[in-house]
Structures are given as structure tokens and as C-alpha cells.
């Protein structure tokens, strides 16, 4: 009898952001916006009457992705790693683009696909990220 094929691992991260707290941080620290958000993300958010709810959604998505990768914000660095997770828009739902450290971690975990969901109100933004990764045995065989 043959073994059943190993199923992919499901990695999940979720994050909640207080929009007023994020807005206060952005207004208090002039460089915050450029350090945290890519140029494309900033342009998208600034096109809206209340950009802070959109910034909140993107910040939550970045943190949720890092949690799904098992490193969190502290593991990648607030000042260097948040550009490594970018929220992209186009046809269909928002999606993630990983680069730099985040992409390297995802590759080590065998991440093959990601799914992102963002929602927000005037006061809160929530993001959920699901990633499908190679079974642990396959990652171990590659030396991860």
C-alpha cells in the first residue's frame, strides 16, 4: 500500500490595526510613511479621502504576512523589512508581493501561493494572510 501524498502546510497570520493610532504615529514621525510603505502603496492610499484606513489595511497585511511566515515584525525589522511585503491591486482581490528577506523566508518554507483579505472601518483595519507551503518533510529534504 502506498503512502498518501503529503498535503501542503497551511500558514496563517492575522493582524488588527487601530487606524487612529496609526494615523497619530504617521503624523508624529515624518519618515514613518516612506519607511513602512512602498511608493505604489503610498500613491494608492493618498488617492482616497481618508488615506489612513487604507494605510491601516496595508500595515495589517504586512504584519499578517510576517506572522504567517513565522517571524513577525520583530523578526524582519520595522525599518528594513516592511517594504519586503507589498500589497498589490489589480483585477480581483488584493495580493501580496514578497521580496528581500520576506521572499527568502517564504522560499525556505516552500511557500507556493498566498491569499490576502483586508477589511476596514473608520477605526480599525484587519488583514488575514494564508500561505500554502510544502510539507515539512519536503522542506527538511532541501535542508531547511
Strand content: 25-35%
Question: Any low-confidence stretches, pLDDT <50, length ≥5?
Answer: none
**CATH architecture type:** Alpha-Beta Complex
Could you name the CATH topology? Answer: Ribosomal Protein L22, Chain A
Coarse shape: elongated
Query: Count of helical segments?
Result: 7
Radius of gyration: 16 Å
Q: How many DSSP-defined strands?
A: 5
Alpha-carbon distance between the two ends: 29 Å
Description:
This protein has 144 residues and is an alpha+beta fold. It has one domain: 4'-phosphopantetheinyl transferase domain (Ribosomal Protein L22, Chain A), CATH 3.90.470. The chain has seven helices and five strands, in the order βαααααββαββα. The strands form two sheets. The chain has a three-stranded antiparallel sheet. It has a two-stranded antiparallel ribbon with strand order 2-3. A hairpin with a 3-residue loop joins strand 4 (111-120) and strand 5. The longest helix has 18 residues, at 51-68. The relative contact order is 0.23. The model has no long low-confidence stretch (mean pLDDT 89).
Amino acid at each position: 500500500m502506498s503512502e498518501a501524498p503529503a498535503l501542503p502546510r497551511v500558514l496563517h497570520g492575522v493582524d488588527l490595526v487601530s487606524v487612529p493610532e496609526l494615523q497619530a504615529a504617521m503624523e508624529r514621525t515624518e519618515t514613518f510613511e516612506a519607511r513602512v510603505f512602498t511608493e505604489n502603496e503610498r500613491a494608492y492610499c493618498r488617492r482616497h479621502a481618508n488615506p489612513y484606513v487604507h494605510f491601516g489595511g496595508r500595515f495589517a497585511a504586512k504584519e499578517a504576512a510576517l506572522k504567517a511566515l513565522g517571524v513577525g515584525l520583530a523578526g524582519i525589522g520595522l525599518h528594513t523589512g516592511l517594504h519586503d511585503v507589498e500589497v498589490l491591486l489589480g483585477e480581483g482581490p488584493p495580493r501580496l508581493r514578497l521580496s528581500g528577506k520576506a521572499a527568502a523566508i517564504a522560499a525556505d518554507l516552500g511557500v507556493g501561493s498566498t491569499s490576502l483579505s483586508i477589511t476596514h472601518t473608520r477605526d480599525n483595519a484587519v488583514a488575514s494572510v494564508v500561505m500554502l507551503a510544502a510539507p515539512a518533510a519536503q522542506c527538511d529534504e532541501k535542508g531547511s
